[in-house]
Amino acid sequence: MAPDRPSIRQAAELALPGLAIGAVGGAMAGGLTLIAGQPVGWAAVSALTLALPLGLLGGLFSTLCGLGGPFRPGVFAPAGLFWLLAFPLSRLTQEVSTGLILDGQVVLAGGVAGFLAYQALVSLGFAIGFVWLHERLMPHWLIRLAGRNPVARTLLQRYIEHAEALDHQRRNRKARGKGQTKGVR
Amino acid sequence: MDTSSTPATEPTAATAGQEEKVWRAGKLEPMPIRTLPDAPPSVHILGPTVFLVALGVGMGESYMWPRLVLLFGPEIRWLFLVGVTLQAVVMLEMARYAMATGESIFFGAARVFKPLMWFFFVVAIAVYIWPGHLSAGAAAFEEITGIPWTVTAVCGLLLVGVVFSLAKVIYSLLESLLSILIGALVIGTAIVAAMVGTWGDVVSTVTGMFAIGYIPEQALSAAWFPVIVGSIAFAGPSGMQQMWYTLHLRDSGAGMGAHIPQIRGLRHAGEEEQMPSRGFMFDTDNPEEMKKWRGWRRWVTFDALLLFWGVTMLVTISFTVIAQAATRQTPGIKEIIANGEREAALSAMADSFASAGSSVLGVIFLGFISLIGLNATLGLFDSFSRGQADMTYHFVKGAKKMRMSHLYAAFLWGVIAFGILILLFGPADGPSGILDTLAFLSTFAMGAYCVTLLLVNNRMLPKPIRPKWWSNLIIGFGAVFYLGMLLYSLFAYGVVVG
């Protein structure tokens, strides 16, 4: 079942779930700014400068899942470490870009070190939410890709192995539901 | 403990003439011995805890505790730490009975003393038929969109009813839905906290949790002590939410719940397998079965510590950081929050962001409050109907002629119809008043379920799987904590909880 020669394109196809979660999370601010009556330009800059890095890095995370290594289904620690670096980087990109575009200057609360340290702390929360959603969306995307993408097929197999115990449990229940529970009353 | 009156495993005559081992627990029907399914890997992301998180992360986390931090300083958060940690242990003990038997804690209570179960049946109706939990979310939605909150609330009620009636398996639908909503909430609050907070905010919020014993003088007053008691009750899942968790655990197929059929939506009620009249027990004398049991305990411990405790803590820390940022940007907000009503304070917190030039954050804040309201509505309506249907099916004469799915639908549509009537014709100041009453009864129910847990787990389970002494001690402390605070508030200040 393992892919013979995984190409970059095949691995990159896996990026969609992470890309979507990161981009939507980042764009949340911009979209709601419009509802709040802020100028469209302001909202667009705010949304784009956060959605872009979060989306790209989210996509990278999904791709890395397809390449094996430490990023495995149901394991949180590698994802936590990934976002420990990626989230502060995204926020730094947003603050710097927004500051330069809208005000012509960049002011980081607590200086660069303080800013990055705080963002790293908050990244834990983002990582938990990201993994939570990623685990929910990724298998659906893999099922769509599995027919033509061997990398997706391998990763899907890993998800299936991970869920094997749960599947086994469900089968047990179905069998018992039809057999033993009848006439118990 | 005295085991003279505790149940025993013994063989009984099975219908096929073979000896069938059963577990006798109380005077109700004994539980046949069945095989315990294999436990899934202990490290996992999704599971029935999503219900508890959806129900638990509510007004306590988003409003009550941030408010107390603004008034008394971050050190007051040690009480939140105690409250949520206690709830994590309660969750583990609730899971013990549900996973060992496939029965709800209500059934367990009936095995000990049937009126105890009826007490919870009545309390559930008294507390949860009121649509108060909808008001904050719908009011926040009104602030964003201008749509009157009663319209949103009524539409929300009808939507919940229709969705749950059409679902094939309600548990699967709700788990997926709540997972996505909670994921969005966690990501969103983290991003907002990242944009408005500072290192100092988060450090003071976290370190404040370890200021054990800190009680400011102002907190010991008739005005604030009841509020603090109410807030502790609202730290994590409040009221009967932990008891309902046993029903979700069963429907997820955890432990012996694998032997119980799932509840289906009204449209698919005909496909539901026959619901057994009691749960099952596994052979606790078999080392292989005990090994699987320990696997299940590891699985639920991961749920309790990382998913429940961790996510609840995370969301509260984020909201507290947001609230601290709000007071920095708009100093006057502290007075508004101290004196104002909930809706006014929530609005003020949102406005403070807008006044600082970040009106987007004000809208996002209100958006989260709406999201929390939606989570609570989905979770509460399902849980209430599930619990009442379970008790009715097993303990109301003649109810077994109906399917569990029909009873579930009857309670669901009953509470929806009542909710709509109250929303349309109820007293104008209903919502806030309802929440106060709910807080009082919630605290009382929580003390009562701690006592129930001690009785059920120590008397109705086989010795090898009963709780350890330290666990009993913590649950006992919980009973004294909830009931003691409630009664102290009542007698010392003449006020219930706020």
Task: Describe the structure in your own words.
The complex is a heterodimer of chains A (about 180) and B (about 500). The model of chain A is unreliable at about 180-185 (pLDDT under 50). Chain A has seven helices and no strands. Chain A is mainly alpha-helical and about 180 residues long. Chain A has helices spanning about 10, 15-35, 40-65, 75-105, 110-145, 150-160, 165-180. Chain B has a three-stranded antiparallel β-sheet with strand order 1-2-3, with no helix packed on it. In chain B, helix 17 (about 430-460) runs antiparallel to helix 18. The chains are: A mainly alpha (about 180), B mainly alpha (about 500). Chains A and B meet through helix 2, helix 3, helix 5 and helix 7 of A and helix 8, helix 9, helix 12 and helix 15 of B.
Major sheet summary line of chain A = none
Q: In percent, how much strand structure appears in the residues of chain B?
A: under 5%
CATH level 1 name of chain B: Mainly Alpha
Tally of alpha and pi helices of chain B? 18
Q: Compute the gyration radius of chain B: what is it?
A: 23 Å
What is the terminal separation of chain A in angstroms? 47 Å
User: What Rg of chain A, in angstroms, do the CA atoms define?
Assistant: 21 Å
The helix/strand class of chain B is: mainly alpha
Number of strands of chain B: 3
Helix and strand run of chain B: EEEHHHHHHHHHHHHHHHHHH
Strand order of the largest sheet of chain B: 1-2-3
Strand content of chain A: under 5%
User: Which pair of protein chains has the largest interface, and what are the residue counts?
Assistant: A-B, 57 and 62 residues
Helix content of chain A: over 70%
Overall residue-averaged pLDDT value of chain B: 79
Number of domains of chain A: 1
Helix content of chain B: 55-70%
Q: Outline the biggest β-sheet of chain B.
A: 3 strands, antiparallel
How many structural domains are formed by the residues of chain B? 1
